[in-house]
Structures are given as C-alpha cells and as structure tokens.
Write a structure and sequence with these properties.
Organism: Acinetobacter johnsonii
Protein name: Metal-dependent hydrolase
CATH topology of the largest domain: Metallo-beta-lactamase, Chain A
Number of domains: 2
Low-confidence stretches: none
Helix content: 25-40%
Distance between the termini: 29 Å
CATH architecture of the largest domain: 4-Layer Sandwich
Number of helices: 7
Keywords: Hydrolase
GO molecular function: hydrolase activity
CATH class of the largest domain: Alpha Beta
CATH superfamily of the largest domain: Ribonuclease Z/Hydroxyacylglutathione hydrolase-like
Structural class: alpha/beta
InterPro entries: RibonucZ/Hydroxyglut_hydro, UPF0173_UPF0282_UlaG_hydrolase
Mean pLDDT: 95
Order of helices and strands: HEHEEEHHEEHEHEHE
Strand content: 15-25%
C-alpha cells in the first residue's frame, strides 16, 4: 500500500466504494477521490455492482464483518468495446446474477482463489465451481479467473483451476492469466 501511495499521482481520479474509503484515501493526500455508483470517465461508463466478501454467517460476527468490509464489483462499458464485469472480492450471490443479467458482459473477471478464513469451511471469495457457474450463466462471455496463488489463504491454484476447467470442458471460455500477463478483448 505504501508503494501505491508513493507512486500514484495525488491528483489522479480514484473511484472508491463508499464514503469511509473516500475519507481514508483522502487522508493519504489524494485530492480527487470519488464514491462510485455510476460515472463516465474518459468515455467509459463505470457502474458499481454489489457483492459480499464472505457468507452471511461470517457477517454476523462483528469483528469478522469489519475485517471483510464492503464488497463491490464494477461494470465497464464503452462504445465499440467489450463490456467487462469485474465482480471483485465477493462470493456468488444474487447481485452477481443480477449484474450478468442486466449488463450481459462479454468478459467476466472473477476472483477465484477460494480464500478461506479460520473457523469456516466456506470461502470469502469465489472458487472453481463459480468459474463453471459463470460459463453457464453467461455462455457467450469469456471468464477471466484471477486472484490465485499470491496470497496465503487462497485454496485454489491456477494449476488446479486449469485441471478443473479442462475436466468441465470449458477451457475455450475460461482464461487463467499468469502474473503480469495482459489480456486484450
């Protein structure tokens, strides 16, 4: 986080999910911090979508709820370009279904590392089954599976997901980029 604070220009527009995040980021010296609901920036329409960074049971524990925080996704739309839905740090919920139905994205980016927290069998983000689920909910979309391998509480690796995707026969619909890889659509 310190590297980002030092690297990102203080006048660069930053979009955040709520007023609490806005205050924190402004306190770090950033001048143009905007709470996102819906905005157009340089010809790209950004729309905030909902989600939840864990299960309802997790959110009933105040300390865990505070640590998990609010979750949001973003849909990016621009004339002549693919519509991209970045689901964010969420489990699969009705908000994800709604975003797919409403925006009909061409590309869906899912955090699929199946991150676990102590004391729970359920994940705080999506896993490999959610990758398959996305291909069924949006059969014409490309699914980009990210947020694996880099953090110690992830329980799904790229290799495991690649095997799963192949077993399900959806390898033509799912992309699993390596760190630093750039994808173009």
């Amino acid at each position: 986080m310190d590297a980002a604070q030092a690297t990102i220009p203080k006048n660069m527009p930053l979009f955040v999910q709520n007023k609490e995040d806005q205050k924190i980021i402004q306190s770090q010296g950033f001048k143009d911090v905007r709470v996102l609901t819906q905005a157009t920036f340089e010809g790209i329409k950004l729309t905030k979508t909902g989600g939840q960074h864990g299960t309802d049971a997790m959110y009933r524990i105040p300390k865990l709820k505070a640590g998990l925080g609010e979750a949001m996704g973003v849909v990016f739309e621009a004339a002549g370009h693919e519509t991209v839905y970045v689901a964010g740090d969420t489990i699969w919920r009705s908000e994800v279904d709604q975003a797919i139905q409403t925006f009909k994205p061409d590309v869906i980016v899912l955090n699929t590392g199946n991150a676990l927290v102590d004391g729970f069998k359920e994940s705080i983000i999506m896993g490999k089954e959610d990758t398959y689920h996305a291909t069924q909910k949006a059969p014409n979309a490309k699914v980009v599976a990210v947020h694996m391998d880099a953090i110690n509480h992830m329980s799904v690796t790229r290799a495991e997901l690649a095997d799963y995707v192949k077993d399900k026969g959806i390898q033509d619909k799912v992309l699993i980029p390596i760190d630093g890889e750039t994808l173009s659509f």
